[in-house]
Amino acid sequence: MRTMAYAHASRRDKSRRYVVAKRVSARFIARLCRRGRPCAHLPLFLMLLATQLGSGPPLRAEPQHLPLILGLCGGQATVDRYDDLLTEADGVFYWGGKLSLVRPLPKAKTLVSFMSIEQIRQAREKLREARVDFVSFNPEQWRASKTPPEDYADLPAAVGRARKLTDELKTRLAFCPDNVLLEKDGERVAPLVDLFTVQLQRFQVDPAPDFRSAAARLIAMVRKGAAHVPVYAQLSMAPARWETRQRPDGTVQRIHLRAPGGRKALAPLTAAEVLAQVAQLRDLVDGLVFLCPEDNGTELRKVVLALR
Q: What is the pTM of this model?
């Protein structure tokens, strides 16, 4: 069964097999025609001829089930509700602050996310004890982020340090930068990681640019850097609301809207709305990551059921 980190392999293998088959079939057709006996093997002759007349390798096949990684804000009871739906290709991810909740799951893999290299370093023993499958480095440079400037000033070097730590832990490295860092360094960093997550939740509630076009542009940057690395799209069941403001110098600033009490204002989405967005991504990505606040868990379960 394909694992979460290698679900992309079949696309490359199919393309390679297609090219080999095309070369072999060309030689065989030429041999039959030289002998003047193509009709003696008419069914095979026609099949091989169709291969030669094809327009090229098949388009990226849409898998029946995209691998899923669920980011659940609730406790272990929340995670347990999905045990019956997750396969060996799927995963559950925890934020580093909830490392104490991590336990091996019956089928799915575990992933723990950190916003700095120092956080990973300090959690090494707990990560080793928890036997996690992936450690995710999630650098972001917004004002209240816990990523220190030294981690994103030279992002390839920082990812190299994360890679060294995960190698020591004998686990795999996932990477989930904010969009600004992805555009700046995503292509250079992609070959260094085992799984690359592209954050798309911002575009879920932003009508411009077009959702699919925005996703395709970012995903293409990653694939240009490392076509062999699986790319997952990160969506949210309740993405943050944004507001665009113009600075005095004419530049545009996008800021989070705030709810009473100072927390980010969220825009809860229905399962139907999220599934419509997933439909636009199926041929672009190798898997999906869902962020879900505890109070929108019912809609997430509907999404997972629909995708399974």
A: 0.75
Delineate the domains of the chain, giving CATH numbers in brackets: 9-53 (no CATH), 68-307 (3.20.20.70)
Owner of token pair 């659940």: 72
User: In angstroms, rounded to a whole number, what is the distance separating the alpha carbons of residues 82 and 80?
Assistant: 5
CB 245 within 8 A of CB 255: yes
Q: What is the DSSP string of 184-248?
A: HHHHHHGGG-SEEEEE-HHHHS--SS-HHHHHHHHHHHHHHH-TTS-EEEEEESSPBPEEEEE-T
- d(C-alpha 215, C-alpha 176), whole Å: 14
Q: What is the pLDDT of residue 65?
A: 81
Pairing of strands 242-246, 252-256: antiparallel
C-beta of residue 241 within 8 angstroms of C-beta of residue 227: no
d(CA 69, CA 86): 9
Segment 104-133 mean pLDDT = 93
Residue 70 CA to residue 79 CA, distance in Å, equals 9
SS (H, E, C) 9-53: HHHHHHHHHHHHHHHHHHHHHHHHHHCCCHHHHHHHHHHHHHHHH
Distance of CA 65 to the CA centre of its chain: 14
> Would you report the helix, strand and coil content of the chain in percent, each value rounded to 5?
45, 20, 35
Identify which has the larger pLDDT, 308 or 4: 308
Distance in angstroms (rounded) separating the CA atoms of residues 47 and 27? 14
Q: Quick one: what percent of the chain has pLDDT higher than 90? A: 52
Decide if 287 contacts 69 (C-beta within 8 A).
Answer: yes
